[in-house]
């Protein structure tokens, strides 16, 4: 008993001692964190070390100290602390992350990659972090190989390599006139022909030309440029294209330069078309690949870029398509979409509406592309809601439909096709403004059902399927215009997308309009079209077909016309559970019940 009592006392004392040590270690950790935030990494390391003397198995102290060691460029010590942290917690993601950073700094690329792979194994949700880290390793390894190769070229006395160095030295001379620098930059651009020269440009401080040369900087940043400054600016843009094409490290360095970051939007808005053209070409190098887009989003305030690039729809030359391609690329980035929201209602949508109403005056190919881009942006619910509430946008869409319907040129047809697609997306919203335009819009779509372009017809039906639920008046008007007969005609022709829209349109019309129900019974003898749709593999089509059938069975003679069909078996199959959507099962069951009520022989 005495031994057990002593043992119990020892355990209690140990627990109390550990609790006191943990409190002391936590206090020292907070002091270390405070020093780290202030940039005093030496003091932070000291405090973390003192904390570890109190509690040797505290994982956070090891990882925090490793982070401070990284800041001090003591990479081996950082690796050691991460290893200790992993002994405390084998699944510590922060330890693997910091160890990967340390190995990368030590040029142990395979070990760095393995750390990041382990993070993904521990938590598959860290895929974005994993991709970013692996990309950083790839870029750093490529950078080192490039620089080693470039150094060999210099040591071998290769003329091309030496010329880059010599030209940069000449540009480093101060107090020359602006034409001297513009000419030298163009010579340098001509000398950059491959990755080796791109690397030599970087390693010989080529990107410092703006920072170190006040004449070049002043000419590049001038608000209203004279002829010489325009020439200098274009020369710089051409040089940066040459050194950044296919070179991610150079792209990163250029975009982190504050003057370049500040000037890019201004250059895109320049009154000089050649400056705009070369700026677009430079930005395209970034937008056409994922890493470049991330650099743009990270280092540029893109709030005004949607508006700036959209303005190029007014350009008759290649600038318009370049701008639209950049916009299309940028819409793949979520951060770009979030920045687009800021000025959408106040600046972007008024410009967009103006472009839509000027379809005959702008670059139609670019406008069609721009409308398509806006349609893609509607995947963002905030952007879609703002656009759907813009009365001017709806008015502009209607005007474009009128003007394009009167023109047969392919470019106008593409604009019409794009606007219909945009409206299909916008009509996922529901608001008072949409209700106000429902009758006019549905009338325009009815007129388009005669169009020779099947793509336009399909989208017109798509708009009908989404606008009609907003207004009973619109339903009455299209029913008077013979929409039921037209939809049956399109359903007979087939095509899954068209059928999906057409049967949805019929389901809306037959829901509450007796005339539509009677028209369907007349147009679809013995319900041959609906019966065929009920056997579709597309459950949306099946559900709407069952709904239409159920709505029409109250028309005298409708149920009797189905006596020789297998409609009961089809509906039983869907109602009994073959359909995965509950709504399809319900519609089939309701249709079956109405069938039995309307025709007792069932």
UniProtKB/TrEMBL annotation:
List the PROSITE patterns: TPR
Main localization, broad class: cytoplasm
Can you name the source organism?
Geococcyx californianus (Greater roadrunner)
Keywords of the record, alphabetical order, are: Repeat, TPR repeat
Matching entries from Gene3D superfamilies are given as: Leucine-rich Repeat Variant, Tetratricopeptide repeat domain
Annotated protein name in UniProt: Protein unc-45 homolog B
Q: Which domain of life is it from?
A: Eukaryota
Subcellular localization is given as: Cytoplasm, Myofibril, Sarcomere, A band; Cytoplasm, Myofibril, Sarcomere, Z line
- Where are TPR repeat segments found? 93-126
What is one term from the GO cellular component aspect held by the record? centrosome
Q: Do the record's keywords include Acyltransferase?
A: no
| Biological processes annotated in GO | axonemal dynein complex assembly; sperm axoneme assembly
Q: Does the keyword Ribonucleoprotein apply?
A: no
